[in-house]
Amino acid sequence: MSTQDIQQLIDFIAKSGLDEVKIETSELKINVKRSATQPVVAAAAPAASPAPAPVAAPVAQPAAAPAISAAPAATAAPAPAANHITIKSPMIGTFYRSANPESPMFAEVGDEIKPGKVVCIIEAMKLFNEIEAEISGRIVKVLVENATPVEYDQPLFIVEPI
């Protein structure tokens, strides 16, 4: 199941009003729970035998803690000006501004971006997902510190359209 499929599942659950969904296949085990304030997603690695399933459950629980602690940062983000557009996180994960510490940052304040240009990487479940711009513009502000957790739909960049 790709991260886009998981994101679509989260969106569907948010719109449907369901509080909990469990999906289990031979390759993947996903448990999505929605609380009153914030959705929490826990996914485990492939379930090859019954033994790994109990081990995966404790690993998924600590992942929920950073998600909840990052929520106040998301609400404290400043509102962009009327002509500015916000690039938001398409998933839960860890935000990185460059491919590695020695590499230059993908997008700096003042840089011009175009659709398809990578602006950051979000690591989710040991997968590094390149986040590409969907608009043309100039980066006005970076709202997230490097190597910090981000939530789904959390503002990452403010862009002034060109």
UniProtKB/TrEMBL annotation:
Gene3D superfamilies: 2.40.50.100
Superkingdom per UniProt: Bacteria
Keyword Lipid metabolism in record: yes
CDD domains in the cross-refs: biotinyl_domain (cd06850)
InterPro entries with a match to the protein in the record: AcCoA_biotinCC (IPR001249), Biotin_Carboxyl_Carrier/Decarb (IPR050709), Biotin_lipoyl (IPR000089), Single_hybrid_motif (IPR011053)
Function, in words: This protein is a component of the acetyl coenzyme A carboxylase complex; first, biotin carboxylase catalyzes the carboxylation of the carrier protein and then the transcarboxylase transfers the carboxyl group to form malonyl-CoA.
Record-given protein name: Biotin carboxyl carrier protein of acetyl-CoA carboxylase
Species assigned in the record: Fibrella forsythiae
